[in-house]
C-alpha cells in the first residue's frame, strides 16, 4: 500500500532520532528524510552521489551549491563551515 505524504510526515515526526538530527542539520538525517520523502525512488546520478555523501556524514557543499544555482538561478551562499 502506498503511503500518503501525510503518513510519511507523521512517520518522520514520530522518529525522535531523525527529527533531532534534522534540527541539528546533520547530513545523515537529511539524507534519511530525503529517502523517506521520495519513497526510495531512484534519482539522477548527480543526486545519488550527493545523497551517498550525506549518508556518510558529509555535506557536499560544492555540488549542492551548483544544483541550487542551476534550479533557482542563485549564487550559493557562503556556509559557516565546510568539509
Write up what this structure looks like.
This protein has 83 residues and is mostly helical. It has one domain (5-72). Helices cover 64% and strands 0% of the residues. The protein has 5 helices and no strands. α2 (16-23) crosses α3 (27-38) and α3 (27-38) packs across α4. The longest helix has 12 residues, at 27-38. It is globular and about 35 Å long. The relative contact order is 0.11. The model has no long low-confidence stretch (mean pLDDT 81).
Describe, in short, the structure shown.
By secondary structure, the chain is an all-alpha fold.
**Low-confidence parts:** none
Tell me the strand percentage band: under 5%
Structural class: mainly alpha
Shape: globular
**H-E string:** HHHHH
Mean pLDDT: 81
Distance linking N and C termini = 40 Å
Say how many strands there are: 0
* Biggest beta-sheet profile: none
- Tell me the radius of gyration: 14 Å
Helix coverage percent of residues?
A: 55-70%
Counted up, domains total: 1
Helical element count? 5
Attribute tags:
83 residues; mainly alpha; 64% helix; 0% strand; globular
